[in-house]
Write a structure and sequence with these properties.
about 325 residues; alpha+beta; Alpha-Beta Plaits; 9-stranded mixed beta sheet; 9 helices; binds (R)-mevalonate
């Protein structure tokens, strides 16, 4: 049997703007997706017959990326992420599936997280009508703290480049990593799920048409760019108060892009009482918010009281890896 785990991700700064080449900063989180596969007499997923049309990310990896035509597989998927909620569950699924299949087919060859991130990005782009940045897949593959941007930002370490033809034109991204300072141990992320799912493709398409109708909103993208760079400087220096302020400022700009929701607003407001900063994370429109705090238990409690489902994580969990049987 081959088993692999890939973490979910949480975007601290720059969602939506990153689709247009502005920078985004994301961290891998403790929760993620585990996939196990073994040969079997029939194709099954979770014990039921596998219907490839209902699982586009899995079938993309099996059929198009690996062009697998071997014996039928029995596949098990365990996820500790809320799905369609901004935590990169589909990227984690692609990466874990790709890693498990790689280990099943080529057990002697070590995993290549960059190759997995590229495979996952092509699956995401297909699922999001051609508009997807490599943020989710790269963060889940590489782990730690990942900076995705049109050009490399000073103080980051370059890992690889990605490109995509989107409906708005050709896009190129530089994918980089940042070492988080050791004294960040007292900082926690508390993610709050609104309970409303929100398809990323729809939210990204909504922002694209809003920008076409109101070109003035480009200013919000530039503001997010500026906030993201300031947030990254603060994070690299371990200045948690400034990271929190940048998160609050980023949320305000995302509100103006029309991607917040009353449920997200309720959770962000509740969490801010005990947090250094809070914002929606991912595509918005529902899904999740995230708070940065030194008091994760208290923030989780207020999120629960405000009607959300909390999840506590460190900043920067390890990336995709194989698991022992
Ligand atoms: C989704 O996690 C983040 C977005 O910026 C879309 C993308 O980067 O592909 C909204």
């Amino acid at each position: 049997m081959a088993r692999a785990f890939a973490p979910g991700k949480c975007i601290l700064f720059g969602e939506h703007a990153v689709v247009y080449g502005h920078p985004a900063v994301a961290v891998a989180i403790d929760n993620g997706v585990e996939v196990s596969i073994e040969e079997s007499e029939r194709w099954t997923l979770e014990g039921l017959p596998f219907d490839s049309s209902r699982h586009p990310h899995i079938s993309h990896i099996i059929d198009e990326v690996f062009q697998y035509d071997g014996p039928s597989l029995k596949m098990e998927v365990k996820s500790s992420l809320f799905s369609s909620a901004g935590l990169g569950s589909s990227a984690a699924l692609s990466n874990a599936m790709g890693a498990a299949l790689h280990s099943h087919l080529k057990p002697e060859r070590p995993l290549d997280p960059i190759e997995l991130a590229r495979m996952g990005h092509s699956a995401e782009a297909r699922a999001q009508q051609g508009r997807a940045s490599p943020t989710d897949t790269a963060t889940s593959a590489l782990g730690g703290c990942v900076v995705v941007s049109g050009e490399q930002i000073e103080g980051t370490r370059h890992v690889f480049d990605a490109s995509l033809t989107t409906p708005e034109g050709e896009r190129e991204w530089s994918i980089n990593v940042v070492d988080l300072p050791e004294d960040l141990e007292e900082a926690w992320l508390v993610i709050g799920y609104t309970g409303d799912t929100s398809p990323t493709g729809k939210m990204v398409a909504g922002v694209a048409s809003l920008l076409k109708e109101e070109p003035g909103l480009e200013a919000e993208m530039s503001a997010i760019d500026r906030i993201t760079r300031a947030g990254l400087t603060a994070l690299s220096a371990g200045n948690l108060e400034a990271v929190g302020m940048a998160m609050d400022a980023c949320h305000e700009r995302l509100q103006r892009l029309g991607v917040s929701s009353p449920a997200l607003e309720g959770l962000v407001e509740a969490a801010r009482q005990h947090a250094l900063g809070a914002k929606l994370t991912g595509a918005g429109g529902g899904g999740c918010m995230v708070a940065l705090t030194k008091n994760p238990k208290r923030v989780a409690e207020v999120i629960e009281i405000a009607g959300g489902r909390p999840l506590i994580s460190r900043l920067g969990a390890p990336g995709v890896h194989l698991l022992e049987n």
